[in-house]
Design brief:
The protein has helices at residues 7-12, 56-74; strands at 19-23, 26-32, 37-43, 49-53. By secondary structure, the chain is of the alpha+beta class.
């Protein structure tokens, strides 16, 4: 039996490859995995939402869309 690596841990295995961005009051941490890209989106003190995408552009588009949706839901 072969073990499957966790996609998130692949991205975090080399902290130097993690990209960070601040969008409004959310922090986006993203990195490339063997099968695509993963991002962790969170506000200060809250659990992160994990998104997976095949490429960086799609990942960032969906990350921004999620943040906008969260802000609209708070209103």
């Amino acid at each position: 039996m072969t073990s499957q690596h966790d996609l998130a841990s692949q991205a975090l295995s080399d902290p130097g490859l993690i990209e960070e961005a601040q969008v409004l009051d959310h922090r986006i941490r993203s990195g490339q995995t063997q099968t695509g890209w993963v991002s962790f989106i969170a506000r200060q003190g809250q659990r992160a939402t994990i998104l997976l995408a095949p490429d960086r552009d799609t990942l960032m588009t969906e990350s921004h869309r999620l943040i906008k949706r969260r802000i609209a839901d708070k209103r």
